[in-house]
Specification:
single chain; mainly alpha; 4 helices; extended; signal; Cuticle protein
């Protein structure tokens, strides 16, 4: 067992490397501090780059998603409703991803106040405002 430990130590020592060079740089042709500044663009290259980026921006403005027609939108909503009804009938609680914001059945909604609660809340806030105005 001792011979195995000695052999392992010899192998580790012989395979170890010393990072030579300036600032431990393995490439010995220049130190890290001797990096050259990046090349500067000529006026023609800068103008070509600006026109290229302007063309990209123009295409990006035109490449919006196409809105569905009302018929397609209604058919999609009806499809989602039918899918969800079939899934719930089979014991699966799954929703298709909601594409439209006006699908109140697709996502859980916060609890809404009843008209009586809303009227009581308005009266309560009015009483608070009156008390605050009195000082």
């Amino acid at each position: 067992m001792k011979i195995l430990a000695v052999l392992l130590a010899v192998v580790c020592v012989s395979s170890a490397q010393f990072p030579a060079g300036w600032n431990y740089n393995p490439y010995l042709y220049f130190p890290y501090s001797a990096l050259q500044p990046p090349a500067q663009e000529t006026a023609e290259v800068a103008a070509a780059r600006a026109s290229h980026m302007a063309a990209h921006a123009a295409v990006a403005r035109r490449a919006r998603s196409v809105e569905d027609t009302p018929e397609v939108r209604a058919a999609t909503i009806e499809h989602y409703r039918a899918y969800n009804e079939a899934a719930l009938a089979n014991g699966v609680f799954a929703f298709l991803p909601a594409r439209y914001a006006n699908m109140p059945w697709a996502m859980p909604q916060p609890v809404q106040d009843t008209p009586e609660v809303a009227a009581a809340r308005r009266a309560h806030l009015a009483a608070h405002a009156l008390a605050a105005a009195r000082g």
